[in-house]
Write a structure and sequence with these properties.
The protein is of the alpha/beta class. The chain contains 15 helices and 15 strands. β14 and β15 form a beta hairpin. α5 crosses α13 and α7 crosses α8. It is extended, with a radius of gyration of 30 Å.
Length: 491
């Protein structure tokens, strides 16, 4: 591998160092036998990293061609701490050292690494400050009924509207809004369901965004959304009954003129519409479409028909959740038929009506036998597999993060004190490096032991749940064709 020398000069000035001079100084910092790759950006500002030779250098870093980057001065790379922080993280990921001649930054030395950590602390502060401003602006715009961005919901397209002093984003109804109205008025009828509406829309070849066809989830998302309702006092009361106490508008503004939106923090493990704690209801800057009476009837019906937790999921096979149709990509379900005989059914065909596969000639027992043999073969090789890099779990990652936190605390101490000597700094960083290496060494040992333990597993003796967990550890998905299968492995 080679050493990269990067030089940049935005404009020629009497008091600025030329690109050629920068390169000469950088070469003097390296060994005589060093192989160089020179990258030069002339006439480009350092305010961002959108420069051809800089991009080429980073591409070569990713390609494994470079093991060290040398610059005359830090600002030759970037004048942005955030940009430099991102670049350093990528160099670090590829084990590429960095040297800045003027500032004496050399990441191959403890002091150089400490200085980099100082820069990273300020870069992180800048990122968090920016993120905070973006978040505050997001919720501030929500208060005034502004559409918060992203793809427009079904029945709308993105537009602009004028409020005193400026133009702001909004949603404008399109030709699909008639379909939305039909969905609401159909769902409140006796005997109609999410599935029946999805089936009708799919049969009529109605476009459904990125999805291939309509399903229960897509229909439910629209019927739940307050972006379509004419928000009046009844809608206000409905959300109050759900535990929401924060409203951006006064109660008398809920007069049925405008649509509404609900914003707030959302936990990825929480259902979207099950917990409204700390959410805020705001009236939108465009009119509602569906009368509140119809919208509320849909909400009450959706709540009555809320699916119960499927406690029996996976009872028919330990491969449940891994089987996918090779034709349409949707789930293949193991179902019980006549006399409790098990058969395979493509959800893309039976639920969404978009797949041509009506039946499978291969049965679940044949699939389980084939997958079991393949897993047993992998387990038999695990005993001798000790060369792979360890895969860290969350607890192991936390141990390494704690080391980094100790380094950050040390860096903060360095930045705020003038009494710490370089000798003490060296000892502390060397101690932390040694501790980190020790943890990695322990993890590698545990990884080898875990492989040997996996090699001792007798798969056929596992119960159904254990087989399912083991299969999920090794398999990404199983593509099932009419009379064959393909296993897509994670390993």
């Amino acid at each position: 591998m080679a050493t990269a020398i990067y030089a940049r000069q935005s404009v020629d000035k009497k008091d600025s160092l030329s690109i050629e001079a920068q390169i000469d100084i950088c070469k003097k910092e390296c060994n005589e036998n060093t192989q160089f790759i020179i990258y030069k950006d002339k006439g480009f500002s350092g305010k961002n990293t959108d420069r051809p030779q800089f991009c080429q250098m980073m591409q070569d870093v990713r390609g494994g061609l470079i093991d060290k980057v040398v610059v005359y001065r830090l600002d030759r790379l970037s004048r942005s701490i955030t940009d430099f922080g991102q670049m350093w993280e990528e160099l670090n990921n590829y084990n590429v050292a960095f040297i800045s001649v003027s500032e004496k930054f050399d990441t191959e030395t403890p002091v150089g690494r400490a200085m980099i950590y100082i820069i990273m602390v300020f870069a992180q502060l800048e990122r968090e400050t920016i993120a905070g401003r973006v978040k505050d602006n997001y919720y501030e715009r929500a208060k005034y009924g502004t559409w918060l961005g992203g793809p427009a919901p079904f029945g709308f397209h993105n537009g602009r509207t004028n409020i005193p002093g400026k133009s702001v984003p909004t949603l404008v109804k399109d030709e699909n809004i008639k379909i939305v109205e039909k969905m609401f008025y159909t769902y409140i009828k006796e005997g109609e369901s999410l599935g029946s509406i999805a089936k009708i829309l799919s049969a009529e070849s109605v476009f459904c965004g990125r999805r291939k066809a309509w399903d229960n989830v897509a229909v439910s998302r629209i019927l739940h959304s307050p972006l379509y309702v004419q928000a009046d006092i009844d809608v206000y009361t409905y959300y109050r009954s759900k535990g929401i106490t924060k409203f951006s508008n006064e109660i008398d503004e809920f007069d049925g003129t405008h649509a509404a939106q609900v914003t707030g923090k959302r936990n990825v493990s929480t259902r979207k519409y099950s917990d409204f704690k700390d959410h805020v209801v705001s009236l939108m800057n465009f009119p509602g479409i569906i009368p509140s009476e119809i919208w509320l009837k849909c909400q009450y019906k959706l709540e009555r028909n809320k699916q119960l937790k499927n406690s029996g999921k996976g009872n028919n096979s330990w491969l449940t959740g891994l089987l996918k149709c090779a034709v349409c990509g949707y789930a293949v379900i193991v179902k019980k038929g006549y006399k409790n005989n098990l058969f395979l059914a493509c959800s893309g065909h039976y639920n969404m009506h978009i797949c041509s596969v009506k039946e499978f000639l291969i049965n679940i027992n044949e699939i389980e036998d084939a997958v079991q043999k393949s897993i047993e073969e992998i387990l038999s090789r695990c005993h001798n597999d000790s060369v792979n890099e360890p895969i860290y779990n969350s607890k192991q990652k936390m141990e390494l993060v704690k080391i980094e936190e100790k380094i950050e605390r040390l860096v903060n101490c360095i930045a705020e004190s003038t009494e710490i000597t370089v000798s003490y700094l060296n000892k502390q960083i060397e101690k932390l490096d040694a501790e980190r290496k020790k943890i990695i060494s322990i993890m590698k040992t545990k990884h080898t032991q875990a492989n040997r333990q996996m090699g001792n597993i007798i798969f056929k003796n596992l119960d159904k749940q254990q087989k399912h967990q083991t299969a999920e550890a090794f398999i990404s998905k199983i593509l099932v064709s009419k009379d064959s299968l393909e296993i897509i492995w994670k390993v």
